[in-house]
Amino acid sequence: MTTPRRRQVSLLLQEFGLARASDLESRGVCRPLLRTMLREGMIHSPARGLYCVRGFGSAESRALAVVAKRVPSSVVCLLSAVRMHALDAAEGGRSIGNPLMPTIWIALPPTARTPRLPQVRVRVVRLSGACLREGVQHRPIDGTSIPVFSPAKTVVDCFRFRHRAGIGLPLAVEALREYLRLHPGDAARAELAVHARHARMSRVMEPYLVALEGLPR
Which of 52, 91, 145, 156 could hold 56 in an S-S bridge, CB 3.0 to 4.6 Å? Predict the structure, then answer.
């Protein structure tokens, strides 16, 4: 049965996209009502303490939102950022792993605890200083603001972590090729150079830049 209080919960979840229990409590929703609606299948809980409407987003967008809410100090990076910025030219994109439990790559400070989240497999890289602070953008996905490294920073990180399992040099080169195609011009090239210098990747990337910039786009 739909009551005014239940309609309020549904409207709030449509507004938030993905909401913490505390977000809803601050708007007058009690936790027993959330548990009742969850038990009756009216709402969904993709992770402990988080709620959304049924059918909220894709499995990957839900996973990104869960990570953003539960690990606010994290920044989406590497393969997950490649997918968000469409820097993977492979047909259909690269696999996110088990579609029922997507893999999300995040960057964290060196001393941050590695998160353990139900229904989301998290791969963590450790960054500090300018390599963690700079190049962060915020992308809205299904009502949730997702911190993610910029396309230029993502390309540089792919070269930096090219020896990490699941990344590899072919992905780094592919991301660089797509970046140059999607972001032509001196400003984009200069941004790439800044991040490469901070990550000490300039010499590593230079031969690939020279080769790719000489190809027709």
Answer: 52
Q: Are 94 and 139 within one domain?
A: yes
Domain final residue, candidates 38, 53, 68: 53
Per-residue pLDDT of the chain (217 residues; tens, 9 = 90+): 568 888 888 888 777 777 888 888 888 888 888 888 888 878 877 777 788 777 666 678 888 988 998 899 999 999 999 999 999 865 344 544 444 568 899 999 999 999 988 778 899 999 998 889 999 999 988 778 899 999 999 999 999 999 998 899 999 999 999 999 999 889 999 999 999 999 999 999 999 999 998 755 5
Is 154 found in the same domain as 100? yes
Task: Please tell me whether residues 65 and 166 are part of one structural domain.
Answer: yes
- pTM of the predicted model as reported, rounded to 2 decimal places: 0.74
Minimal CA–CA distance to 152: which of 104, 69, 209, 99?
209
Q: What are the counts of helices (DSSP H) followed by strands (DSSP E) for the chain?
A: 10, 8
Residue 205 shares a structural domain with residue 181 = yes
